[in-house]
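Hi L.,

As promised, Probable transcriptional regulatory protein FC60_GL001354:
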Amino acid sequence: MSGHSKWHNIQGRKNAQDAKRGKIFQKISRDLYQAAKAGDPDPANNPQLRLVMDKARAANMPKQNIQRAIDKATGAGGANFEEITYEGYGPGGVAVMVSCLTDNKNRTASAIRSAFTHSGGSLGANGSVSYMFNRQGLIEILREDLDKDEDEMLMDALDAGADDMQADEEMFHIYTDPSAMTAVRDALQADGYELETAEVTMIPENKTEVPSDKVSQYQHLIDELEENDDVADVYEAGFIPEA
């Protein structure tokens, strides 16, 4: 019995690690696609693509996964991928946006609708929740081993052209106008900063607390969406208070 319990615990940890790794790969795949789509698919001529590819290798992402993401952007292999955004309300009425990259709209729409339904949420029409989010550039820098306090980092960010900055124990979160993100990113890198994230994303204007009796359903919705291979990103306006 104890042997079974030990195996079960090990398997549980492995499954959790695999799920975390899958989400990391998913995000990197999205970044690879966007970098290749926005510029030259040859990394020798595309600094942003080189940056994301370095991140992919550091995360031990398989070479075929990297190439598949770039092929999606270039249409290699004959597949035509479309970017589609779905909007809806999760459990407790929390606004959720789902950015997808798909070669089969019917398959993706069915899967996204099912995810919302399974979790007690509902899929909405275009524009039903997008007005609650702002499109912004987001640059994140790890604080670990960085000899900068918040005031110093804020001044460097503003000098680079950023609009604002927030900080927590682990990360500096730097916000820019979407059109300025690339310039701010390049300026910070020129100053010697190593960037954890540099992207244009959707930031909710306000966060809604997830009701305590809906937390499990809400987490299930986000997990199911993020585990879908067609989903590139999930933007959520909910937060779960610490116990």
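Residues 1-16 have pLDDT under 50 and may be disordered.

Thanks again for sending the construct details.

K.
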